[in-house]
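User: Hey, quick favor. My workstation is busy. Could you predict this chain's structure for me?
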Amino acid sequence: QIETEPLPDTSFFDWSSVSFERHWSDTSDIEVWLYRVEGGGHDWPGSWGNEDIQSAEAVWDFFRRYCSQSSEP
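Assistant: No problem, here it is.
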């Protein structure tokens, strides 16, 4: 399944916007998150280029959510 949502364009002066895609399956615990920066260059959002998201926080949110779960065989 796929869920897509545009994120708020909080910085009009960076000439870019971000959408968030979450891909998952009902039959497994595997999940993929994609932050698509439209109109941005090849930089680290939140530090250079796009200012709508903070990349380090987004990465940490993902790992905190999935690495804190216990692994059961």
